Amino acid sequence: MKICVAGACGRMGRRILELAAATDDLAVGGAFDVAAFAGTELIAGAESGRPQRVLVSADPAAELAQSDCLIDFTVAEACLGNVRLAADASKPSVVGTTGLSEAQVVLLNDCAARVPIVYAPNMSVGVNLHVQADGRSGRHPRARLQRRDLRNAS
Length: 154
Known about the structure:
The chain has helices at 11-21, 60-65, 76-88, 102-112, 125-137, 143-152; strands spanning 2-6, 27-32, 41-44, 52-55, 69-72, 93-95, 117-119. It is of the alpha/beta class. The strands form two sheets. It has a five-stranded parallel sheet with strand order 2-1-5-6-7, sandwiched between helices. The two termini are 16 Å apart.
């Protein structure tokens, strides 16, 4: 699967690129960030002995066109636009961006009605088990999105 990393120059973006380069199951199809980072060359895979050059773009549509899915670790202000663009291109998304407002989560749900979206603003196992448990009882404010994710995952 070819992934497209939004926020490629950030801490999580660089880590995802590193891990993708280390596996045979994933390939980097695209990487983008804000315009100030356009043209930045990253080396992903150095830790695993499988280094590869990744050129960062500021053109999300072009990078998504070369990819099968979006992985977004950006900021709340940019995330929704990236996910909408992916949904318009019929590409699923994984969203780890923190700080989304309730209104932004509603808009994320709208996109999740069109394509599979996994939304976990905290990717730690313990936190997500807690969110899942609260979601089952309907107490968590993002429970509807979490349940949609689980249904669309198959």
